Request: fold
Amino acid sequence: MKPRRGDYFIVLIVLISALLLAFFSRASDEPAVVTVMIDGKTAQSFSLPHIGEYEFSGNGYSCVVELDEMKARVKECDCPDGDCVSVGWLEKCGDRAVCLPARIIVCMEGNGGIDAVVY
Amino acid sequence: MRKLTSFLLVLLLLSGCTSGKPYTMTFFAMDTFMSFSIYGEDLTEELSRRVYELEDIMSETRQGSDVCNINESKGSRYVEVSPQTVELLLRTIELCHITDGLFDPTVGALKQLWESSSGIPERDKIETTLSNVDYNKLLIKGNTVKLESSALLDLGGVAKGYACDECLDILRENGVSQALLQLGGSVIAHGTNIDGKDWKIGIRDPDGSASEYIAVVQVSDTILTSSGDYERFKEIDGVRYHHIFDTRTGYPVSNDLRSVTIIYPEGITGDVLSTAVFAMGLQDGLSFLYSSDIEFDAVFITKDMKIVYTQGLKGKIEVTDGRYSLEAA
Amino acid sequence: MRNKNIALSSLLLAVSLVLSYLEGFIPFPVPGFKLGLANIAILVALYTMGPLCAFVICILKCLFSSLFSFGITAFLFSLAGGLLSLFVMIFLKKYFSRSVSIYGVSIAGAAFHNLGQIIIASVIMETSLYTTYLPILLLLSVISGAVTSVIARASIKAVNASKGT
Reply:
């Protein structure tokens, strides 16, 4: 069966939306802070660069977050998903590792759109 | 349909490639934290090397540095120094004239007095030390320098500015047109940001940490330098004494200002002016600005929660902390 | 007719659960992306038995695949993606079936499935929209949508043939 006109239309819309989103949500910040949120609230923030390993627990599960200079990742997690670990290293602003069962999010954030502070 | 898909996929991949990541490096030098971000070419090695070199020459604590050699000779003779030191001193002296000595690189002894005293130093000690603070006692002959009497040279107030200028030279020599270099608190906003827009630089919250800010300025192709009452301070009997000294009184600057940020494309000038204008206070600082040949912009943060900015920053500054109000000079 | 529907629905539900389970073993660099093979079952249901059956199968699939193994959050995730996807597909099939074939329906379904999951993720985590991965997910949904629709179409043919319609 041949695809109909509407099918091409849908494909085009999806692809164009993807392109537009990619273009406009490009991180303009440099990574500056790694924020770990548990249950929607910020548990701890790390100012980059930073090196260390920290354990966070939520909803009965615990994850080990590793920070290495300007990047971070969920190193280990005893949750049944493993999604949070498989994401790998978070390097750009907006990169996130989400552990649904533990309700833990690790995200890479910029410093509010500014490039530096003069002091 | 397949052709369309692959075509659009390629477009998407390409758009990612042209964004370009900067070359970055963070390191510790000149007693402070430095962070470089350069677009186009990896000059991090060369730049950091130059900064380390300058630190070796200009540190007042490192044995064998020009400053140490000059101070140790105690005015007995002319000491041979590197050409950078000569260049720095000549320009600094010029600026001292312009600011009537409110900035003075021979303030070393005064600093030492305050740092070594457990409380407030005795008045007559301050006065004696003050009498030795005089940039005119700095004599330069060729590539040798002599500092008369018991004055002490301290280039801490200009070394970073000079390093900024050297770094800027390196960037220009290598054809780099976009970079953001942070040397301690000084910021070199070279060219524009990668998307062609101005760099957004936060002005430090005088009551917060070095990464908290109360206003943002949009700048390009310039250097930002701040002086304020928040750095290296001592608390004596509940009163804060910071380390920027009023060369007229011998005491830390005490007026209506919390900080001044100078925006000007030359680093040494920014360094000297930020100290001098801070010492002047708001009114005198503005008068100086209007009457000076040097065309610089400034942001003053006053003790009564005002952020005063000069005309050149019109439309390029915004307050981000509700406790402060923005005012045009 | 009704009995046949129940039998077919159960079969499709089982198939979707198995597919859902199996595709978890395919590693993907992008978090949150699933090939959506289970959508094949939903599509078949939609085109052979109608929106109501598809709806029931969808809900049951979400219940069985996530609630009992991962908990309520995963269930909500699955449900959000599944339902949004389903409603879009029902809508397209009902009002645009002249210009949109099963290919388009499937692709739109896949795209909205991902979108639904992202929306619910942002709601649950109380953060702003996670748009970072959306572009890639949307792109991949075109491919996955196309793949599932091809398989679904073949299955639909088989089902119709066996029904004798």
About this structure: Chain A is about 20% helix and 45% strand. The interface with chain B takes residues 3, 7-8, 11-12, 15-16, 18-19, 22-23, 26, 28, 30, 47, 49, 70, 111-119 of chain A (CB under 8 Å).
